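Subject: sequence -> structure tokens, single chain

Hey, anyone have a minute? Need the predicted structure for the following. Not urgent.
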Amino acid sequence: MAEEGKRRDHLIVLVHGLWGSAQNMARLESVIHHSLDDSNMANIHTYAPQCFSHFKTYDGVEAIGNYILPDLLQHIENLHSEHDISITEISFIGYSLGGLVCRYIVGELYELDFFKSIKPGFFTTFATPHLGVTFYKGTVMNYLGGIFLGQSGRDLFLVGDEENIIYKLSDPNFKYYKGLEQFETKISIANAKFDRTVGFYSAFITKYDPFNDWDNIDPKYITDLPTSTLKENNKHIECLVVDFKNSKIRDKSDKQTKKENINEGRVFPLIVMSLITTCVFPILLSVSTFATVKSYFRNRILEKENVKKQWKMLSHLLTTCKTSNRRKHDTNESDSNGDEEDEENDVAKEQESDGYNEEEQMKPNNVSVSHVTREIVENGLNIISNPDEYVEELVEEENGDKQNAENGIDSGDDTVESFKIDLDFDLNYKSKSAAVDQLLDNLVSNDLSDTPIVENLNPLPFSEIREKILNNLNTINWIKITVLLHNLNSHQSVVGRRGFERTPESIPFLFLFTFLIETSLKKHKSF
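Reply:
Had a minute. Here:
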């Protein structure tokens, strides 16, 4: 419990995904600070580990988690020793593969009794393959993914069944499930469409994929959520969170009209597909094979660090610090002259001294081979299995603003805040609490089986192991959010990975997410 009169120090850990680096999380991290640094609930600190990146992400969920664990404990110690900050609460945000890594980490921390000293806050995943990855329309991709992506590929494609780490993460008898249970607020965020890297079903944790046939549904969106306006061109961006309670099956005549419009533009993507297949695909396989072999030997050479011993020392240090601070607090209380202004200045100084530097975090990294590999996979290889859907993405991106109007999105207009993150924009909303209430009141937390949008829709042909994972994870109380981003690659834009100048569609949604975080902080004020 935080000392009376002192705000809690809350650490948010942001973990990136396959082929990525800590810089992938920079925009989300920036939004968190812009939105929450003035919160009266806690001093917000963020940490995006840099101990694994690029082709080290091939090493598998367990290995990556074991890279991060000692670095995380060291970071908490550094905050204490270098900045006089004692973390009392911790939260996790995992993006893509990073969400699985976070679930592994919280299980290992649970086994250390970490959460008895540092309280769990919230746990969030963005576009994370909780059910693994499979391409139901392209079996060749499933075969290649399990071979040419190192141990991470074996993990993601569920090689080994019950020995696979993704199954172990979901088993209620294992520490990973028990660790996740410690977090009262658990959020899973899925892309409705345009994300072929991680299917909607896997990120949302469901056996249905109603968006697989976009022409067959009439999607509706939750109203009165934040919007943003870009100052440079006055472009208005809506926050499109799917309202499953009111979305329904599309009329057949509407479906036919749309299909005719899409078929007009098939030539370009087919050319792109042909070029990728003949020129780039062999290079990609060669690079990925080299990275897989390197990962294989790295996993067998590197020793696992003794985090149990490291945590024991850190826990003793934090316990000693709390006792010392309590005595100091009692002494100061008796000698206090009620100088509240000095106390406020001390808090402000403390907030600025945690080592976070937005300008440094936002600097673009040099483009590496792994970046190129990721771009090819996300924007190219998946075109092979579904060229029609690629054309549909182009059409939807062009018609995004029109669709917002057709669906009657009602933007907030009582509060306007100006921000600069890559570009200048205004954020518009009625109130944070109203936006969160509107969001939570209209979400569906189950597997969609009782919603109109899956009426007469067959469930996906899950394997037995994937069915078990699904059932296990749906015993957990998730806040499940589905967002539609009109972008050729929603997997990258859901966290603003390439910067808001290139993908501004995620701006209002990421701020809405921080409103939800703030609500969670208020809910757990008694820590």
